[in-house]
Amino acid sequence: VKGGYDHFMLKEIHEQPVAIKDTYRGRLLVKEGIIRMAGIDDNLERILNANRIIVIACGTSWHAGLVSEYIFEDLARIPVEVEYASEFRYRNPVITEKDVVIAISQSGETADTLAAIKLAKSKGAFVFGVCNVVGSSIARETHAGAYTHAGPEIGVASTKAFTTQITVLTLIALKLAKEKGTISKSEFQHHLQELELIPDKVEKALLQDEHIKKVAETYKDAKNCLYLGRGYNFPVALEGALKLKEISYIHAEGYPAAEMKHGPIALIDEQMPVFVIATKKGHYEKVVSNIEEIKSRSGKIIGIVTEGDVDVKNLADHVIEVPETIESLTPLLTTIPLQLLSYHIAVMLDKNVDQPRNLAKSVTVE
Ligand code: M6R
């Protein structure tokens, strides 16, 4: 069942190149220069006329939602709010018929997300689902949707669901951007081409596994870890920290790199590993100066960098390379080493990787 892997989580991490391809198959038509998604095409007017998009989700799916906020605003120029379903449903939110709600859920059974959908529907919003499990409650409760087609995800720690959710949301954002005319033809085409190359690049990122294992060995006894990123990679920092927490039980926090000096920098000493996402595209110089600040306080730096990087390599204790891509697609690559790192640390600490304590794969009670 585990396809020769020791754990479902590792199997699912390695399935990502195929899962991402399955997600965009039949939708991403590079030669034709179009994105085909029935759930969007059939409701195009409604979606294009939206005042804003509200994304609701929990956990890792909420992190995918945060990534989508950058993509939707950047490419399609649509205002986006990303909400924890559990907060949204209980705070008497302002929702109108002009809102489009996107609900993201791997299982399609998360109680808070389901309740938030019902609330949004009762206020007249149009609700679009991004689910993995076909025929799930959320898939049925939403007006329209797009499946991620990631295949079954058994490990409690979500991996391929996250990258395939980002893939679907990117396709939607690109499609809306094209319809709205907020992206040039050539830029649109460039995005399609780059997205098509992502599965091979994920494959390449996975080849760093042995090196990542060594990094895991170095930091497996840490009591606390910080994860930093900016822009598109800020949500990846949150996701990296969540992955470490839930399967290795090491306390970890994700932060936007520039927020460090508003508090968390006080935590930094030689005991504190800081994982910094510092890819070439996207605020690179600013992240490098954040790294210098950590270094001057004796923090241990592990940089997630673009292949061939020099500046971060000179400053960091370790670097893990990922292939180059356009900025909006970097989360699909920078996530990979952070998943592997958490996996190896949890295995080294002899934790139950696939079924961590106190957690359920789908949270069907609030
Ligand atoms: O099935 P869902 O995507 O709605 O689940 C949401 C969260 O419960 C889930 O992402 C959880 O945070 C994972 N264990 C994270 O790895």
From TrEMBL:
Annotated GO biological process: amino sugar biosynthetic process; carbohydrate metabolic process; fructose 6-phosphate metabolic process; protein N-linked glycosylation; UDP-N-acetylglucosamine metabolic process
Span of domain SIS: 43-182, 215-356
Group of enzyme by EC: transferase
Active site as annotated: 361
Cellular component GO terms, alphabetical: cytosol
GO MF term list: carbohydrate derivative binding; glutamine-fructose-6-phosphate transaminase (isomerizing) activity
Keywords: Aminotransferase, Cytoplasm, Glutamine amidotransferase, Repeat, Transferase
UniProt catalytic activity: D-fructose 6-phosphate + L-glutamine = D-glucosamine 6-phosphate + L-glutamate
Record localization: Cytoplasm
Gene for this chain: glmS
Biological function: Catalyzes the first step in hexosamine metabolism, converting fructose-6P into glucosamine-6P using glutamine as a nitrogen source.
Binding partners and assembly: Homodimer.
Protein name: Glutamine--fructose-6-phosphate aminotransferase [isomerizing]
Keyword Metal-binding attached: no
Superkingdom of origin: Bacteria
Entry EC no(s): 2.6.1.16
